[in-house]
Amino acid sequence: MTHTDLTTHTLRARLEETFPTFVQTLIDLIAIPSVSSLPQHSQDLDRSAQYVQQLFSDIGLEARIESVTTPEGVVGKPAVLARSPHIEGAPTVLLYAHHDVQPTGDPQRWSLEPFTAEVRGDRLYGRGSSDDGAGIVVHLGALNLLARDLPVNVIVFIEGEEELGSPTFDTFLHTYADELRADVIIVTDSDNWKVGEPALTTTLRGNCCCTLEVTVSEHAVHSGMFGGPMVDATTCASLLISSFYDEAGNVRIKGLGGSDKADVDWPEEEFRAAAGILEGVQLAGTGDLAARVWTKPSITVIGWDTTSVAEASNTIAPKTRLRLSMRTVPGIEPEKAMEALRAHIETHMPFGAHVTISDVECGPGYQADLEAPAVELAHRALTEAWSVPSVNIGVGGSIPFISQFQSEFPEAQVLVMGVEDPLTNAHSEDESQSLSDLKHAILAEALILRDLAHKP
To answer: Is the pTM of this model over 0.70?
Structure first.
């Protein structure tokens, strides 16, 4: 059989026959607690890499485990590199996913054992079921469907430290650049629009994190004797945070950019339900709701060191520390956005309180080239696989390694595809994966690999 005989009907039939095996593979992946951020799970991370290596070896790829150490001495986690037999003159496609997972947090907040998978209706529950075990299974399943009829060269890169922020990613790309270079890069670590509605992710916000230390005095003093003229550091920091927003809840810091328009309508009731927002709590900002999440900036306090309620006394706090996470607009350099935030902080600090900014981290956003031939091809494949028109979406979160791919391989076309959906609960308790969407995603990737053989 040649790739011209690989009709969609043929691939669908193969998928129906083999899909239970792919579900079992995902269940087996969930059972390995490959938490990259916790040292006590380092052996589990090794075991996860070995299992993934074996999966791709079993379908005929040459697979091995690699890691790198950065010039600064950061030792990387185990990654799997696999390659299909070479086809002279055929396009090369790099398939990316990651095998590490987030910690589970408080097990009491789960309705199941996090690393024991459970099927409920159309969804498979467990840590890593969607982020990013499903991404691995999509690649494995697509290659399995095509089997010996694979018409393109394929490189598989399954990372082991994405949930740590990919600290050795650049070094890995530089070290294995010749092996990883491809015409098209497919990333399965993003979202679909909704269950049953496929999407390509065409924008990602960047991210800037920093720590603020606000100080008002050399030492603590009695709030009764000095309170009034003297404002505590926590209140000063709170007033600073309030200056980030206008009355409607839009971020008012100059120079951050943003767009009020999105390609899709996100009903407010669906957003509120997915986020678990309490009744009566109002949504902030103006413009299309999807744009407020995807293409406008946001600032979130993600940590705050101040006196606890248990340790409270009648004392004016002289100092406080807080951690900010600012999501930046696609196309805006995070470093420039950080400069704008710094300028605002320095000119809006209430009552002349002293502030220092430290521990700055910046990650780039992403904007797809919507004119790239692979984008059009991918939309056709997604629409054919789901029998529902695919759409372009953004994601409010950041995936900095996608921009690193673009920087290292500027000639490659990048496709960011989804396995997650608004019900997935990635990084939280009761994470789950839609099995119907998993099946469609496997078929869609197989169609893309099939049709890339005809790409001019």
So the answer is: yes
35-70 pLDDT tens trace: 999 999 999 999 999 999 999 999 999 999 999 999
Q: Which H or E run includes 11?
A: helix 8-30
CATH code for the domain defined by 206-258+297-363: 3.30.70.360
pLDDT tens track for 82-110: 999 999 999 999 999 999 999 999 999 99
User: What is the C-alpha R_g of the chain?
Assistant: 24
CATH architecture classification, 3-203+366-452: 3-Layer(aba) Sandwich (3.40)
Report d(CA 141, CA 376) in Å as an integer.
22
Task: For residue 431, give every residue at least 6 positions away whose Cβ sits within 8 Å of its Cβ, in sequence order, or none.
Answer: 114, 125, 126, 127, 128, 129, 130, 131, 424, 425
Cα 229 from Cα 103, distance rounded (Å): 45
- Spatial CA neighbour of 103 closest among 27, 39, 188, 189: 39
Is the pLDDT score of 456 beyond 60?
no
CA-to-CA distance for 54 and 241, rounded, in angstroms? 50
Phi-psi region of 335 (alpha: psi -120 to 50; beta: other; left: phi over 0): alpha
User: What are the residue boundaries of the structural domains of the chain, listed by start?
Assistant: 3-203+366-452, 206-258+297-363
d(CA 162, CA 69): 15
Whose CA is closest to 36, among 158, 135, 179, 201? 158
- Per-residue model confidence as pLDDT tens digits over 236-289: 999 999 999 999 999 999 999 999 999 889 999 999 988 889 999 999 999 999
The pLDDT tens digits of the residues spanning 109-165 come to 999 999 999 999 999 999 999 999 999 999 999 999 998 899 999 999 999 999 998
- Burial-class residue 257 by CB neighbours within 10 Å (0-12, 13-18, 19+): middle
Asked if 112 and 126 touch (Cβ cutoff 8 Å), the reply is yes
- Asked whether the beta carbons of 306 and 317 are under 8 A apart, the reply is yes
In this model, does residue 4 exceed pLDDT 80? no
Note whether 213 and 323 are within 8 A (CB). no
